[in-house]
Amino acid sequence: MKFEGIYTPAITPLAANGDIDKAAFAEVLESLIDAKVHGIIIGGSTGEYYAHTAQERIELAAQAKDVIGGRLPLIVGTGATRTEDSVEYAKAARDIKADALLVGSPPYALPTEKENAIHALTIDRAAGLPIMLYNYPGRMGVSMGEEYFSTVSESKNIIAIKESSGDMNQVHRLARNYPNIALSCGWDDQALEFFAWGARSWVCAGSNFIPREHVALYEACVIEKDFDKGRKIMSAFMPLMDFLETGKFVQSIKYGCELNGLRTGSVRSPLQPLYEHEKEVLKDVIATLKREVAQITGA
Questions:
Q1: Rounded distance, CA 246 to CA 191, Å?
Q2: Using one digit for the tens of pLDDT, what is the confidence trace for 30-78?
Q3: Catalytic one among 7, 49, 134, 148?
Q4: What is the chain's mean pLDDT, rounded?
Q5: Which of 60, 80, 52, 78 is nearest to 10 (CA)?
Q6: Dist. CA 284–CA 129, nearest whole Å
Q7: Domain, as residue range, for 52
């Protein structure tokens, strides 16, 4: 498997009683397929995996496979504090014939790089599926470094990394020292830089509601290799990036989907919904972004 294109970490719609709305979830997946994203990730932070029970996570991944079939690659997140739990999510993903796994660092535990590498390789051995690593020290408390990569790169299944540290030096090191681990942008306002350094994919929560605009940036930089055009599209994206970094990230992604007519419901505690004035600001930002990207691409 090759990670190329736009990979959407899908939201998880909720019903009024707080349960997962499975019918609305199917609609979200169909909207992404229709928008021609290149892959879908289930069980990521945008999907609020941390607020789901183990059974909900397993059932959600199985439903995603049923809905998607073979139309797009399905990547299943294995995030958990205990390695044993991550292994169970990985086995469940293998059983439904998911295409790949998303493997991050265990949150709160603060493992050493060697311990973290053992965690990833244990998941790898349990499932035998292609793996995209997920380096997000801002959420996990530890960063994947030289010892980690030198250890996990021994596995042929570890083929990509969603790099979300925000540290461009890390991007440089990965591109130079570990060309066997394909770079995927995981820090949205650095997408242009990632593509310049050879990344061929972007895992982007915003593609839940403006997928075509994300695809436009990918195509400009990776397919057309037109970085002048890419810079213009990226510039149009920046007000949205700035808004998303002010907080209420998942809430904003869900509201963006709601503007597209999708049923999203609220978010699970401890998160709280957007205020009305926040919705108005985001609505204007999205409208402006769409208009500017359409002018750039001639769409």
A1: 19
A2: 999 999 999 999 999 999 999 999 999 999 999 999 999 999 999 999 9
A3: 134
A4: 97
A5: 60
A6: 42
A7: 5-297
Number of domains in the chain: 1
Single pTM value for the model: 0.96
**Residues 174, 152 contacting (CB under 8 angstroms):** no
Q: Report the C-alpha gap between 212 and 218 in whole angstroms.
A: 10
**For the segment 67-108, what is each residue's pLDDT rounded down to a tens digit?**
999 999 999 999 999 999 999 999 999 999 999 999 999 999
108 is known as an active-site residue? no
Q: Is 290 a catalytic residue?
A: no
67: its two tokens: 């809905």
Instruction: State the catalytic residue, choosing from 7, 89, 162, 248.
Output: 162
Where residue 141 falls among pLDDT bands split at 50, 70, 90? very high
Domain CATH number, residue 109: 3.20.20.70
E-state strands within the chain: 5-9, 39-42, 74-77, 100-104, 131-135, 158-163, 182-185, 201-203
